[in-house]
Amino acid sequence: MFDGSVAAVHRWPVKSLRGEEIEAARFDERGVAGDRAHALVDGRDRRRGNLLTVRQNPAMLTWSAEYGAVIDPPKPPVLHAPDGRAWHWDEPGLADALADSFGMPVELRAADGQQDRGPTVLVTFAASLAALAAELGRPVELDRFRPNLHLTLDAPPFAEEDWTAGTVLRAGDVTLEVTGERAGPCIRCAVPSWDPSGRARWPELQSHLIRRHDNKFGVIMRVTRAGVIATGDAARADTA
After folding, report:
1. Residue environment code for 126-160, b if the CB has 16+ CB neighbours within 10 A, otherwise e
2. Residue 168 β-bridge partners
3. Fewer CB within 10 Å, N- or C-terminus of the chain?
4. Could you tell me the pTM of the whole model?
5. Is the pLDDT of residue 113 over 70?
6. How far is it, in rounded angstroms, from Cα 221 to Cα 169?
7. Cα separation of 49 and 47, whole Å?
């Protein structure tokens, strides 16, 4: 059993764009309400219909998206372009502005749960982030890993790498669990090697994760009891 608190709550309104840190969010069968409920779709003839990610176009990280300080977003997000201009999701011209920025045709799609692992929650831990920075000899930005919950627990660094099905986390009103259904320690792709603004790559980060941590960082969990989690809420993990 490990105890601690919620250090941060994050939401990513548009898949692969930068997101927002918020005070509180609703967690339910969708994962985090509004998380990745919008996505950009490849409009090129040979790849039409495929969801776009940073892996295909790192320029996506030069854009951000937000709903604002709402627990359960009632409306589409606002996107912010690299030049600072705000675009509403349903505003005419947004697809063209994105296409100009990315150098390729883009279409817009709205649907809950557009995640690689379905409607899940990614949890990271302050002790592991600090230990990773110490191993690498330089700070590591949390946003590289795109978590939903960031916790301060009295667990040792990287303890979550061994969390198995049946591990339960309680925070705020919410219960999350490692179910074994596309959940468990998070195997990382190349996205964390890009800085959060998409302007430079740090390939040694992924090489280090592969070599020292079997390419794991954070843990994927599913909501088994819905509710609200806020920054500062108490958190407790019971491992299987």
Report:
1. bbbbebbeeeeeeebebbbbbbbbbbebebebbbb
2. 177, 238
3. N
4. 0.94
5. no
6. 9
7. 6
pLDDT digits (tens, 9 = 90+) for 155-195: 999 999 999 999 999 999 999 999 977 789 999 988 999 99
Nearest-angstrom CA–CA distance, 110 and 50 = 14
Beta bridge partners of 8: 150
Distance CA 68, CA 13 (A): 10
CB atoms within 10 A of CB 1: 8
CB 36 within 8 A of CB 83: no
CA–CA separation, 217 vs 161, rounded Å?
7
CA distance 10 to 21: 4
Which pLDDT does position 182 carry in this prediction? 75
Tell me: the pLDDT tens digits for 117-170?
Answer: 778 999 999 999 999 999 999 999 999 999 999 999 999 999 999 999 999 999
